[in-house]
Request: fold
Amino acid sequence: MTPEELDQIAETEREQQSHITQRINVCVAAGCLSCQSRSVKDALDKEVAQRGTKDHCQVKGVGCMGLCSEGPLVSTSGGVLYKKVEASDGAAIIDSLEGAPVSRLVCPTDVPFFKRQQKIVLENSGVIDPDRIEDYIAANGYTALIKALTEMTSREVVDEVTKSGLRGRGGAGYPTGLKWSTVSKSVGTQKYVICNADEGDPGAFMDRSVLESDPHRVLEGMLIAGYAWARRKLTSTCAPNIPWRSNGCGTRFARPSASDCSDRRSAARASASRLMFASALALSSAEKKPL
Reply:
């Protein structure tokens, strides 16, 4: 995967999206799925198909929108957020795209819960389709990886992370730059970058939000870490009994259910695998770059 190829994928996706004038995003993360958001999306898809407006009206499954207690959540291109949506509300929501919002479903966003948020890691959550690598690339995904591989040495990547002041979010606040520097200096012929996706704390629901809603951000971070440490192997681990929503990446972060293994996701997994393979080759050759 070259920078030019990445730019071409992004440009193609943006061109296709430019023809869409009406958008309806349906949360399909675990919280809303447990409230039957899949049936809401199916109903919206059916309504759009019946009206023959697929050419300019898009219904998209997206990641977590934040207020899980009010799910299923649906947002529109008009900036309206709907709460506790049911499948029977599909027609009314589509009608509202060219008229007034459906007042009984409106979820206020001018409240402290939303106004005090500044999304950084979660900036793509609720916006992109986590099952489509093209959607992530169009949102400037994998550009940081390309920059690291083509413009920076492994040491420069570690130094950049150190200067950023990035810290762990597990409670101890351990400096990420110090951790990366220590690992990069450790000896050993075979090492691994491991994504600890086992969110085992009672009631915990933060890591899975990123894994479900923006999985390629996690993969990109792992690839950058692998380059910074000059490592060849990347893997993930999780508790097999956690009923997380499956994502469309080549790497699974949870045990998939039968319904997750749909043909619709094959293309996304294949695309992710190709990018991972190309990146792995780049990592392999990059190991020879001087520090």
In short: The chain is about 45% helix and 10% strand. The beta strands are 22-27, 57-62, 74-76, 81-82, 192-196, 233-237. Residues 266-286 form the longest helix (21 residues).
